[in-house]
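> call design_seq(struct)
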């Protein structure tokens, strides 16, 4: 802030032109006044001495204490230094809706149900349930046909989120995540949607499951949706593990640790059994939700049950076009 300074100098000009007329014999001229004469032609004026330049102290301010420093902000790291972005080439997805990756098989009608507990923002324990079903629908995104998953999320028996999500397998056997449209609910009523779709608002598809997961593979983004702060990335945490859940006991289990740019030393652990898919969820580090889930049901839906899921997914998409014209509204319909 710049402080202005004022300076006051008082000038007094006294101009007295007195011409006293005298007689020709005394050499004097008659008296006259000439007030219109320019000052520059006037006799030297009597000038008041210049006053010392004294700053007009901007209104005296009371000494103030040093402002209390604001809490230091946690800077978000450069995404490129945290994990790798894999380049998605549409030409490498010639049979993209056949997802037969051994760790993440996705055939229409497959349904996984996981249940367990978590902690909410206020530290309260919740019962959790996630229903994940592969529909018979597909959706074209950026030139790639994707498989549509239907997901319902419950807290304490109440539906808190419904979602459609989009997956595709490349020619190398890697499963990609092309985006999602989740809708949050409260007391059964719509609250908000937070979609991200590859190619819209700088969103990028990411790798959900690599073909041959081995320790040492660099961390990789599972998707990128900066408009909604979606920045999940994964790393191969363990291989060859054993675990038991209500459905069965499994060996040669793969564990992937997932985190995001907004988290520090917080990881969600996803357990995948070969030819089954996700069977368990755990956590490590400073993960605030401390979510623990286990597979309680793995079924193949009947044609009638699948048709019901089909209709619910289409209904959600219709709503997505209404509430997300800037993102979901830019996509082609499912079919």
């Amino acid at each position: 802030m710049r402080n202005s300074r004022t300076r006051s100098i008082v000038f007094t000009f006294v101009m007295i032109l007195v011409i006293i007329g005298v007689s020709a014999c005394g050499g004097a001229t008659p008296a006259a006044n000439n007030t219109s004469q320019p000052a520059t032609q006037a006799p030297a004026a009597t000038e008041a001495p210049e006053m010392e330049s004294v700053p007009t102290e901007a209104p005296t301010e009371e000494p103030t204490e040093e402002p209390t420093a604001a809490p230091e902000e946690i800077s978000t790291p450069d995404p490129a230094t945290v994990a790798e972005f894999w380049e998605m080439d549409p030409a490498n997805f010639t049979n993209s809706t056949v997802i037969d990756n051994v760790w993440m098989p996705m055939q229409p009608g497959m349904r996984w149900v996981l249940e367990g507990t978590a902690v909410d923002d206020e530290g309260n324990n919740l019962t959790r349930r996630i229903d994940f079903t592969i529909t018979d629908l597909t959706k074209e995104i950026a030139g790639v046909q994707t498989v549509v998953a239907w997901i319902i999320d419950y807290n304490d028996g109440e539906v808190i989120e419904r979602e459609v999500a989009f997956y595709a397998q490349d020619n190398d056997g890697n499963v990609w995540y092309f985006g999602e449209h989740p809708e949050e609910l409260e007391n059964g009523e719509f609250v908000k949607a937070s979609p991200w779709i590859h190619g819209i608002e700088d969103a990028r598809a990411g790798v959900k499951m690599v073909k041959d997961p081995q320790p040492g593979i660099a961390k990789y983004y599972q998707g990128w949706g900066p408009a909604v702060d979606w920045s999940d990335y994964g790393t191969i945490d363990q291989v060859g593990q054993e675990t038991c859940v209500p459905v069965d006991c499994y060996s040669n289990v793969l564990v992937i640790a997932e985190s995001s740019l907004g988290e520090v030393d917080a990881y969600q652990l996803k357990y995948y059994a070969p030819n089954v898919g996700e069977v368990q969820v755990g956590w490590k580090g400073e993960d605030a939700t401390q979510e623990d889930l286990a597979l309680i049901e793995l079924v193949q839906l009947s044609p009638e049950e699948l048709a019901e899921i089909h209709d619910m997914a289409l209904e959600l998409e219709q709503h997505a076009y209404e509430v997300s014209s800037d993102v979901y509204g830019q996509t082609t319909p499912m079919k």
